[in-house]
TrEMBL record:
<feature type="domain" description="ABC transmembrane type-1">
    <location>
        <begin position="30"/>
        <end position="304"/>
    </location>
</feature>
<keyword id="KW-1003">Cell membrane</keyword>
<feature type="domain" description="ABC transporter">
    <location>
        <begin position="350"/>
        <end position="583"/>
    </location>
</feature>
<feature type="transmembrane region" description="Helical">
    <location>
        <begin position="20"/>
        <end position="41"/>
    </location>
</feature>
<dbReference type="InterPro" id="IPR036640">
    <property type="entry name" value="ABC1_TM_sf"/>
</dbReference>
<keyword id="KW-1133">Transmembrane helix</keyword>
<feature type="transmembrane region" description="Helical">
    <location>
        <begin position="61"/>
        <end position="83"/>
    </location>
</feature>
<dbReference type="GO" id="GO:0005886">
    <property type="term" value="C:plasma membrane"/>
</dbReference>
<dbReference type="GO" id="GO:0016887">
    <property type="term" value="F:ATP hydrolysis activity"/>
</dbReference>
<keyword id="KW-0812">Transmembrane</keyword>
<dbReference type="InterPro" id="IPR017871">
    <property type="entry name" value="ABC_transporter-like_CS"/>
</dbReference>
<feature type="transmembrane region" description="Helical">
    <location>
        <begin position="163"/>
        <end position="182"/>
    </location>
</feature>
<dbReference type="InterPro" id="IPR003439">
    <property type="entry name" value="ABC_transporter-like_ATP-bd"/>
</dbReference>
<feature type="transmembrane region" description="Helical">
    <location>
        <begin position="243"/>
        <end position="263"/>
    </location>
</feature>
<dbReference type="Pfam" id="PF00005">
    <property type="entry name" value="ABC_tran"/>
</dbReference>
<keyword id="KW-0067">ATP-binding</keyword>
<dbReference type="InterPro" id="IPR027417">
    <property type="entry name" value="P-loop_NTPase"/>
</dbReference>
Length: 587
């Protein structure tokens, strides 16, 4: 039942290629006829020519036989090719859909899902669907035609002998169905454990440097061995059922042949069955069992495909609360001029009102946090680690949805804007900037044509051009794996330039200077000034020296606003800020 639901959904992906599938379906009866006709020709040759000694008709029959074989090969070629062709197309389509779906999932989803397991959905799970086409699932329809044809012809030739032969059928059907269920369960295990394996691989390989520096190779290898073993072991039941099913079908087909020889031999002696008919019977029964035997192979592929489909559709059905509502996909028209006018415009004001937020259940990270940031103001968020500073910035970009309260920009609730419009107004610079494989210019513009026009100017504004110009290829210098060929400070400057190139009216800097050495800090500080010019800015700062001249400093303590004021005011108040400041300057 459940299979049928999965299949019905899967068929929708095949629907665009129904013409090609139609061609295959038309070929199936042709194929069935060529298969059914061969034993019949053999019977005619034996009974009408060989036994009676009329040899003159034999060359024609032999030629007919050859013709049928050629026809069968040609049809097989077209059929196999077309099916795999459609298979590739369908796999391509599903990959595209899955990828763009994953792109729209929320930060909450990615918190819980290892990247490796997503990679395995997009690669190996989809590959299994391809195997389904390769194994010729559609040709099952043709197999059924052949099976029905054989039953018909056999009954027509000799009812009693047919009934004797088919006495093995109930057992065959029972075995096939029972094994099928067992295999399904086993396959689910296989796919799940392969997912675990890929998730582990992605993480371990990604963190190889840490693994090596801390001598964790052996433990990592042990864990890998454990996962590898569990994957291998999950495959064992599948192989067992597969082999057993094959063996049982093989045995039953031999039993059927034995029955034909035993009972059919008697019929020949009695004169109720011709010699040619006996030979045809044996040939038919082999043709009857071979698709059933192949069916066992097709079953295992099918079961694998079903398990994969379940996982693929399961992921496609993941709807997270933060997902873009469909009707908001286009940026509202009033947003457009903001992005267009890179010259004079008023940067947005932000208001956080009574924010309550928890990553898990009732574990509130923010407890009634409120803050008003005026247009063009530079506000610093400080406080001890884990206080909720980063969380505030994430909520502003709607990476997570607040549980209670509201955030608005220029008086408009951010939930009423499309994610695209919201995020195009906010530029975020993270502590650890993520660089992609590509040139520096690409890393600044991220391929956006508007941003691309501003790459060099943006780099100059933040002072990144100074080091870029010294590179052999300048802006066309390649960034290797996540920017490993640049220093932390250089990476940070590139990410500043990125923020400027996108020209946001609101800027969020999350500990952007924390990972930079004191020598480049001055450089970064200058870059920051260029970056913040003419924008509303929220700075999360670890080094209090960097925010001394902020318009306002807000101290967040355990999810609540503890203090607020200018540097001088807060120092005079001798509260939390004063203590944090003292701590840093004693060092
Ligand atoms: P800060 O930036 O002030 O150091 P954060 O906003 O990053 O603090 O974190 C506040 C609290 O939320 C911490 O207790 C942290 O453990 C928790 N937290 C942060 N991110 C997540 C997350 N993705 N999932 C669950 N808990 C998180
Ligand atoms: Mg933080």
């Amino acid at each position: 039942m459940y299979d049928r639901k999965l299949m019905r959904r899967f068929v929708r992906y095949i629907a665009p290629y129904r013409r090609l599938i139609g061609v295959v379906l038309v070929m199936l009866p042709i194929m069935a006829v060529t298969k059914l006709a061969q034993p019949w020709l053999l019977k005619t040759a034996i009974d009408n020519h060989i036994v009676t000694g009329k040899l003159e008709g034999l060359p024609l029959l032999a030629a007919g036989f050859l013709g049928l074989i050629f026809a069968e090969s040609a049809v097989t070629f077209v059929e196999v090719y077309l099916l795999q062709y459609v298979g590739q197309k369908v796999m391509y389509d599903i990959r595209i859909e899955l990828f763009s779906h994953i792109q729209r999932l929320s930060a909450r989803f990615f918190d819980q899902t290892p990247v490796g397991s997503l990679v395995s959905r997009l690669t190996s799970d989809i590959e299994v669907l391809g195997e389904m086409f390769a194994a010729g699932i559609v040709t099952i329809v043709g197999d059924v035609m052949v099976l029905a044809g054989i039953v018909g012809i056999m009954l027509w030739m000799n009812v009693k002998l047919s009934l004797v032969t088919f006495s093995v059928l109930p057992l065959l059907i029972w075995v096939a169905f029972t094994f099928r269920n067992w295999m399904r369960v086993a396959f689910r295990q296989v796919r799940a454990r392969l997912g675990n394996l890929s998730a582990f691989l992605a993480e371990s390989l990604g963190g190889m440097m840490v693994v090596q520096l801390f001598n964790r190779e052996r433990d990592e290898a042990r864990e890998f061995r454990r996962l590898n073993e569990s994957y291998r072991d999950a495959n064992l039941p599948v192989i067992t059922w597969d082999a057993a099913l094959y063996a049982v079908v093989e045995t039953l087909s031999s039993v059927a042949v034995a029955l034909i020889i035993w009972y059919g031999g008697g019929e020949i002696v009695k004169g109720t069955l011709s010699f040619g008919a006996l030979v045809a019977f044996i040939q038919y029964i082999e043709r009857f069992f071979s698709p059933i035997r192949d069916l066992s192979a097709k079953y295992s592929v099918m079961q694998g495909a079903m398990a994969s489909l379940e996982r693929i559709f399961g992921l496609l059905d993941k709807k997270e609360e933060e997902q873009e509502p469909a009707q908001l996909l286009d940026p509202p028209p009033q947003m457009a001029p903001v992005a267009a006018a890179s010259g004079r415009r008023t940067p947005g004001s932000i208001s956080f009102r009574e924010l309550w937020f928890a990553y898990h259940n009732e574990d509130y990270v923010l407890k009634g946090f409120s803050l008003e940031v005026k247009s063009g103001e530079k506000v610093a968020l400080v406080g001890e680690t884990g206080g909720g500073k980063t969380t505030v910035t994430r909520l502003l970009s709607r990476l997570y949805e607040i549980n209670c309260g509201s955030i608005s920009i220029d008086g408009t609730d951010i939930r009423e804007m499309s994610l695209q419009a919201l995020r195009s107004r906010i530029g975020v610079v993270l502590q650890d900037p993520y660089l992609f494989t590509g040139t520096i210019a690409y890393n600044i513009s991220l391929g956006d044509p508007e941003a691309a026009k501003r790459v060099e100017r943006a780099a100059a504004v933040v002072g990144a051009d100074r080091f870029i110009k010294l590179l052999p290829k300048g802006f066309d210098e390649e960034v290797r794996e996540r920017g490993g060929n640049f220093s932390a400070g250089e990476r940070q400057l590139i990410s500043f330039a990125r923020a400027v190139a996108f020209d946001p009216e609101i800027l969020v800097l999350d500990e952007a200077t924390a990972s930079v050495d004191p020598a480049s800090e001055r450089l970064i500080q200058q870059g920051l000034e260029g970056l913040m010019e003419g924008r509303t800015t929220l700075v999360v700062a670890h080094r209090l020296s960097t925010i001394r001249d902020a318009d306002r400093i807000v101290v967040i303590h355990r999810g609540e606003k503890a203090e607020e004021g200018t540097h001088a005011e807060l120092m005079a108040a001798k509260g939390l800020y004063y203590r944090l400041y003292q701590l840093q300057f004693k060092e």
